[in-house]
Amino acid sequence: MPKVRTPSLVERDRGLLWHPYAPLDGPAPYAVTSASGTRLHLQAADGTNFEVVDAMSSWWSAVHGYRHPELDAALSRQAGQFSHVMFGGLTHQPAVELAERLVDLAPDGLAHVFLADSGSVSVEVALKLAVQYQRATGLPRRTRFLALRGSYHGDTFAAMSVCDPVDGMHAEFPRMVAEQLFLPRPPQARLVNGELLSDPHEVHAWIAVLEDTVHRHREELAAIIVEPVLQGAGGMHIYAPECVRAARRVASEHGLLLILDEIATGFGRTGKLFAAEWAAVTPDIMCVGKALTGGYLTLAAMLCTRAVALAVTDSPLRALLHGPTFMGNPLACAVAVASLQLLESSGWQQQVAALESGLHAALAPAAGLSSVAHVRVLGGVGVIQLNVPVDVAAVTRAAVEHGVWVRPFRDLVYTMPPYVSSAGDVAAIGAGLCTAVARVHG
C-alpha cells in the first residue's frame, strides 16, 4: 500500500480560515509550533523550520514576551477557581482589582471603567457613551464625531466610521457607516532630546482648522476622537503634542468630549505610560487594550470621568447601553492584573528607553537605502517608511530567513518589540529589517 501523506497544518489552513485582511487563497501563513520569551518557532509551507525574534509583540500586545511564568501562574490560578461568569448582576475579584488598578494608573480624573471584549468594542462603547452624555445633558442633536485623517480605531462599524475615510474601509460599506467629520492629519513631529518637535507654523495652521471646524459644527458634534501623538495602523505617524492639547481646549470650550484611543499607545509603548502624558492632558474618555493582558487574552477597557458617568447615571436610561457576554471575563482580568503588576515591577521605563536607544542604532542603516523615504523611532516603536508600497510577502519571507518575524503594511516596515527584548534581540531585529528591505526593494 502506498503511504498516504498527511497534509501539513499550513495546507489544512489554506482555503479554510480567513486571516486578517487576506484572501482565502492568499500567501501561505507560517505555522507557529511554539513560543517562549521573545522567540517564535515557525514552520513554512514547505516544512522548513525557523526560529525568529518577534518584532511585532503579536500586534503590539505581548509586551512581556511569551510563556511568562507570572502570567502563566495568574491564568492557572484563576482557571482553578472559575473561568467565566456573566457580569450582569455578578462581580468578582479580578474585575474589581483590575478596575482599581486602571483608575490608579490612568490620567487624573478618569474614575469609572467599562470592561470590553476588544479594542474595537471599547471604541464602540466610548462613542455610545459620548452620544448618551450629550443626550443626557439636553443636546440630542450632538451625534457626530470629529476625527483625524490617518486615524484607525477598529474594524467594527462605529469604530470604522471614525477611521480615515479615504485610506480606511468606509467606501466598501456605503450607507452602513455613519458619516463623520475629519481634520487633516496633524503635523509630523520628530523626537529630539526627549521632546517631540514640530514646525510651529504648521501646528498653528492645523489648530486654526480645528477651531474653525468645531465652531461650524459644534451643534452636531458629540466628541473629538484621536490617537494621541502616534497614529498606529493608519501609518505609524508621530505628530505634535500641541495638537492634542488644542483638541482638549477646543472640546472643553464647546462642551464636546475628548476621547483618546490609547489602545496601541497605552502602557508605555511611546515612552510614557499613556501617550496623553506627552500633551499633559486628561481626556473625558480613554480606551485601552492590546498590552493590557500582555497578549494572553482579548480584553480592553473604556475609562471616563465622574462628570461623564454622572450625567448618564442621572438620565432616564441611567445605564450605559452595552453589555457583552464575556464582559469582565475573569481569566482575562486576572492576567491583566498580573500584567500591570509586572509592568510596574519590571521597570517598563528603563525597558522602553533601552528599546528606543537600540532601535535608533539598529534601524539607522536603512536611511541609506534608495527605497527608504524616512526612518523614525518613538519609545518602543521603530519605523522604516519606503517610497514605494511594500511587497509584504517578499519582505516577510526575507526577514524570516534572517531570523525576524515582521508584518509590514502599506509603505511601512516597522517594529514594536516586546519590552523584555535584549540588546541582542533589538540588534537582530534591526539587521533583519534592514536586510529584508535592501534585498526586496533596494
From TrEMBL:
Main localization (coarse): cytoplasm
Gene3D superfamilies (UniProt xref): Aspartate Aminotransferase, domain 1, Type I PLP-dependent aspartate aminotransferase-like (Major domain)
Pathway entry: Cofactor biosynthesis; biotin biosynthesis; 7,8-diaminononanoate from 8-amino-7-oxononanoate (SAM route): step 1/1
Residues found modified as N6-(pyridoxal phosphate)lysine: 290
UniProt-annotated binding residues for substrate: 59, 152, 290, 323, 407
Presence of the UniProt keyword Transferase in the record: yes
Highest taxon listed in the record's lineage: Bacteria
Enzyme class: transferase
Keywords: Aminotransferase, Biotin biosynthesis, Cytoplasm, Pyridoxal phosphate, S-adenosyl-L-methionine, Transferase
Subcellular localization: Cytoplasm
EC number: 2.6.1.62
Catalytic activity line of the entry: (8S)-8-amino-7-oxononanoate + S-adenosyl-L-methionine = S-adenosyl-4-methylsulfanyl-2-oxobutanoate + (7R,8S)-7,8-diammoniononanoate
SUPFAM superfamilies, alphabetized: PLP-dependent transferases
Keyword Transmembrane helix: no
Signal peptide: none
GO MF annotations, alphabetized: adenosylmethionine-8-amino-7-oxononanoate transaminase activity
Cofactor: pyridoxal 5'-phosphate
Assembly description: Homodimer.
Family: Belongs to the class-III pyridoxal-phosphate-dependent aminotransferase family. BioA subfamily.
NCBIfam families linked to this entry: bioA, PRK05964.1
Role, per record: Catalyzes the transfer of the alpha-amino group from S-adenosyl-L-methionine (SAM) to 7-keto-8-aminopelargonic acid (KAPA) to form 7,8-diaminopelargonic acid (DAPA). It is the only aminotransferase known to utilize SAM as an amino donor.
PANTHER family the record matches: ADENOSYLMETHIONINE-8-AMINO-7-OXONONANOATE AMINOTRANSFERASE
Name this polypeptide is given: Adenosylmethionine-8-amino-7-oxononanoate aminotransferase
Organism: Arthrobacter silviterrae
